Amino acid sequence: MSLSDPLGDSTHFLSDDSEGEEAGPVQQEEEPVSGVSVTRARLTVAVLCYINLLNYMDRFTVAGVLPDIERYFGIDDGKSGLLQTVFVCSYMLLAPCFGYLGDRYNRKWIMSVGITFWSLVTLASSYTPQHYFWALLLTRGLVGVGEASYSTIAPTIIADLYVKEKRTIMLSFFYFAIPVGSGLGYIVGSSVDNAAGDWHWALRVTPGLGLLAVVLLLFVVKEPKRGAVEARPETHLHRTSWATDMKALSRNRSFMLSTFGFTAVAFVTGSLALWAPTFLYRAAIFTGEKPPCVSSKCDNSDSLYFGIVTCVSGVLGVASGVVVSRRLRKWTPRADPLVCAAGLLLSAPFLYLAIVFAQTSTVATYVFIFLGETFLSMNWAIVADILLYVVVPTRRATAEAFQIVLSHCLGDAGSPYLIGLVSDSLRERDSYMWQFRSLQVSLMLCSFVAVVGGGFFLATALFIEGDRGRAENYVPSDDEPIVVPRSGRSTKVPVASVLI
């Protein structure tokens, strides 16, 4: 049987029905319509949160030891920015492939293979020799393969386990892992580097935890039935062709506008994630609080402090965003995009003040960073929830993939490299003062982008009611092609020809 036949009777390894029945005596607990018990559903969310934590922890471990990496390889700001850019480019280019597979095959197995690959490549990147910077770039790019297999699929599993308020709550737990994992990446990276005296060891923490995640995926997570919790089981929701899916998504104004808004969030967070610890370190050298690292190991304490601030502000931001949105929904159905807009518009001035005050007050800088990141983090869970309720279940993984591609392509795929290039171009002399000044000016671009993103979310509020209603009452049209198997191959035929 061909793997291209997602609906074949013998597709036990990759089909969604591979776990439909479990051996054993009559179960005491009545199985919900999703096919996953209440206890197993909670454990599934816990495992997915753990893996999301690892994803972001690994992603920002490099940023936590960036000054050491720059000194080790003798690279400038532009090449340092490439470390994040090559990863995000790989991640976003492969996301559509995994989105397509995630809408058609068993999601648990796809994630398991991807995370195994990610763990092995991350471990390999920690053995990069000094004169082979290109090898570090290559392995960081390959890490994106594993993360693309997870990030496009995991939210759709949560969407098939819970609806409405419970879904929002579970998504908030899932997206708590983003700021907390990011903060832990800085903390673990700087701490392990200081303890081992070698930045390579900082990259060897997450691979072992990643293999544990694969074990948990295989033995704890169970594939839910798509759309069943929304009273629309997969047997009643036809899988349309990829071209039809993309055409429908491009016409979904709430989805497109919120994706552009999220692109601004990705631009700002991507820039800060890579450059904030290095900027704080250069500010400390500029003010005379710390000595520069020339031949000795760099002082990465700023990465530790920034990681703690990121963890706390992230948890507070995600939680406050969800709480404010839930309360505001009692007054207006446009609450979600309005809260996202407010978060971005409020973060812009605080991030600007943090950049300006870095040259005079370290305490004020961290206070403004905390406030800016708190408001910025209000978006994470809400944006994901918007996508899930304005897109029908059989297109959600594709929508997640499309959002990942667009937001990263125009957001954090290029922003770290762009900030580095602008910094290099503004530097008139190779001095510690100009290293700080040039990076300071280039980071101010983040505040402008945040304001633009807030405008996109305000525009989303104009269409959110209509698009949500259309998704909830979606019925395939007669001329909409669906995918059915014929002789082991997927064939596009009109709906009317199979509904006779």
Task: Describe it.
It contains 20 helices and two strands. With about 500 residues, the protein is an all-alpha fold. It has a single domain (about 35-225, about 235-495), classed as Growth Hormone, Chain: A. The radius of gyration is 23 Å and the shape is globular. The two termini are about 25 Å apart. The model is unreliable at about 1-30 and about 480-500 (pLDDT under 50).
Provide the spatial order of strands within the biggest beta sheet: 1-2
Note the main sheet.
2 strands, antiparallel
Relative strand content: under 5%
Specify the overall morphology.
globular
Tally of individual domains: 1
Number of strands: 2
Fraction of residues in helix: 55-70%
Low-confidence stretches: 1-29, 481-500
CATH class: Mainly Alpha
What is the average per-residue confidence, as pLDDT, rounded to a whole number? Answer: 78
Q: Give the CATH superfamily.
A: MFS general substrate transporter like domains
CATH topology: Growth Hormone, Chain: A
Q: Report, as a whole number of angstroms, the end-to-end distance.
A: 27 Å
Going by helix content, strand content and strand pairing, the class is: mainly alpha
Order of helices and strands: HHHHHHHHHHHHHHHHHHHHEE
Domain Major facilitator superfamily (MFS) profile: 44-465
Biased composition (Acidic residues): 16-32
Pfam families: MFS_1
GO molecular function: transmembrane transporter activity
